[in-house]
């Protein structure tokens, strides 16, 4: 989805370094210092306009969240929410999610969320899928032992691919939902895409998987 340019977005980002970073390499291994309290760190790769990560930060004050987004026109919406909310457990990172090991030290992250990632349906683009093995290896590098990956999508093809990719990588699938909104799962925080697609009656797929250290 193409997002409209927001006038003054870059200046707003520059004016709020306490909430958002465009280069976090200096914070590698020191993310705890960006937050008011030392707490588990959860990251969302591809946060879009931030409905999920802001909602999670509100619902779980005992967890520190980092929303990671590449598009300025998307992350500015999260920043505007954060300027209003001033959540002490939320930080934003305007960078390419493919380079996470440049910004996080080994074992620094406690949980990773992938929500409604680009499905890249063509076979020649398989390496761009965020559940491809090279991405999984990056996540595992920055994740603590036993950390989990939580993944949601409306795209059945991507979900089927991801189930196979995670299993082949050696991850343990802990839970799988083939129709999340018709299940008994509690505490679900919707993303913008999830809200849109579920209203159309499309099933939402979800999984939770654990890194075991076995590749």
From TrEMBL:
It comes from the Bacteria. S-adenosyl-L-methionine binds at residues 44, 69, 96, 118. It catalyses: guanosine(46) in tRNA + S-adenosyl-L-methionine = N(7)-methylguanosine(46) in tRNA + S-adenosyl-L-homocysteine. Its EC number is 2.1.1.33. GO terms for cellular component: tRNA methyltransferase complex. GO terms for molecular function: tRNA (guanine(46)-N7)-methyltransferase activity. Substrate binds at residues 122, 154, 191-194. Pathway: tRNA modification; N(7)-methylguanine-tRNA biosynthesis. The keyword NADP does not apply. It is an enzyme of class 2 (transferase). Gene3D superfamilies: Vaccinia Virus protein VP39 (3.40.50.150). Keywords: Methyltransferase, S-adenosyl-L-methionine, Transferase, tRNA processing. The keyword Signal does not apply. It holds the Pfam family Methyltransf_4. Belongs to the class I-like SAM-binding methyltransferase superfamily. TrmB family. PANTHER family: 3-DEOXY-D-MANNO-OCTULOSONIC-ACID TRANSFERASE/TRNA GUANINE-N 7 - -METHYLTRANSFERASE, PENTACOTRIPEPTIDE-REPEAT REGION OF PRORP DOMAIN-CONTAINING PROTEIN. Catalyzes the formation of N(7)-methylguanine at position 46 (m7G46) in tRNA. NCBIfam families: PRK00121.2-2, tRNA (guanosine(46)-N7)-methyltransferase TrmB. This is tRNA (guanine-N(7)-)-methyltransferase. It comes from Vagococcus vulneris. The gene is trmB.
């Amino acid at each position: 989805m193409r997002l409209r340019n927001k006038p003054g977005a870059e200046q707003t980002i520059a004016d709020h370094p306490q909430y958002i970073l465009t280069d976090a390499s200096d914070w590698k291994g020191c993310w705890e210092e960006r937050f008011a309290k030392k707490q588990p760190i959860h990251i969302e790769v591809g946060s879009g306009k931030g409905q999920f990560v802001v909602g999670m930060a509100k619902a779980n004050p005992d967890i520190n969240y980092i929303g990671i987004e590449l598009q300025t026109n998307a992350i500015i919406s999260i920043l505007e929410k954060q300027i209003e909310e001033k959540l002490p457990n939320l930080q934003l990172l305007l960078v390419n999610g493919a380079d996470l090991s440049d910004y996080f030290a080994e074992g620094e992250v406690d949980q990773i969320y992938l929500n409604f990632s680009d499905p890249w349906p063509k076979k020649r683009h398989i390496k761009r899928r965020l559940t491809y093995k090279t991405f999984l290896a990056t996540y595992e590098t920055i994740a603590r032992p036993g950390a989990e990956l939580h993944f949601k999508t409306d795209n059945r093809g991507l979900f089927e691919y991801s189930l196979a990719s995670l299993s082949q990588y050696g991850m343990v699938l802990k839970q799988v939902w083939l129709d999340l909104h018709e299940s008994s799962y509690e505490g679900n925080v919707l993303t913008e895409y999830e809200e849109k697609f579920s209203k159309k009656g499309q099933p939402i797929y979800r999984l939770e998987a654990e890194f075991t250290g076995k590749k």
